[in-house]
Structure formats: C-alpha cells, structure tokens
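Q: Got a minute? One more chain.
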Amino acid sequence: MQAKAAWAPPFSRSKKGYEVFVSDMGHIQDKYKAQLSAHNLRWEEGKHTPEAILDVDEVIKSPGIPETAPMVRTLREKGIPIISEIEFAGRYTQARTICITGSNGKTTTTSLIYHILQKAGFNVGLAGNIGRSFALQVAEGDVDWYVIELSSFSIGRYVPLPCRHCRSAEHYARPPRSL
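A: Always. Here it is, folded:
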C-alpha cells in the first residue's frame, strides 16, 4: 500500500465489521502506524508474511503496486480477489459520483467540478488522486456527491467503478498553434 492510503481502506473495512491486516513491503510512516494501532488494526512493514496475506477473503491493493509483484501473482494464482480502494468504497456509498479520467486535465477538471458543486451548496467530497481517501470519507460519514480523479493506475484492471450515473466523455488537449 502507498503511505497516503495505507490506513484508510483498512480503517473503513474495520468500521464495516471486517477483520483487517495491513502489509507493506516498504516503510509505513509513523503517523499511519499510530492510526492503525489506535484502531487496533494488525499491520506489518518491510515484509509480506504469506501465511497472513494468503489467509484472507479479499485484498485491497494500492494502485502503485505492479501486477508483476510476487505477492500479487501469488494472490491471483490462489484466486483471491484483488480490488482497489475506489471499488471497495463504492460498495458502501449511496452518493452520486463523478469520476474523471484521461490523459490531460484530470486534476483541473476534478477541482473545477468539485468547486462548482460546493459553491452551489451541494454536500460534496473530493477524492481519488486529489483530496482525501474515498474509503475514509465514506467510513467517516457519507456525502451526497463525490468528485473522483482516477488515473490509469487507479483504474488498472479493477471494475466496476462506483459510478451509478455515468456518461463517457473524453477531453482532448491540443498543442497551441504558433502565432
């Protein structure tokens, strides 16, 4: 898991009654360790203990972990479902979602839509690559709308996205013409 998201999905899962175990091959920042421990969530860093990881019903994988990672390959071979934080959180919200993806302009477009909805008085959350963790926001108290920036890593091979009212749109950026 990546540091920013290291504790949000596990915390969310624990609030939904799941038994949680966090495993990070790297280093977990002290502030996230404190949060995990404060919620009595089991965790490890600097290693992946196969016995603990392979004894699960489902894994929430950080989008930064490649599909070629040995533990990911093993999980797939064992048939253990691997999902994203976005997919997980989408299960537990009734909010409408606006998901923005594409090559250029995602952050600007996401921020603009969030700002417009907020100024219009909507109860809205900002999540994905910007804003706070989607899973954490859903666990702490849902809103009516989420505006979510999704990179290709966020989407990866995960489906379905939590978009209940989706329309497809592509944003094309062209280089400026010389004057």
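A: Residues 1-7, 167-176 have pLDDT under 50 and may be disordered.
Q: Perfect, thanks.
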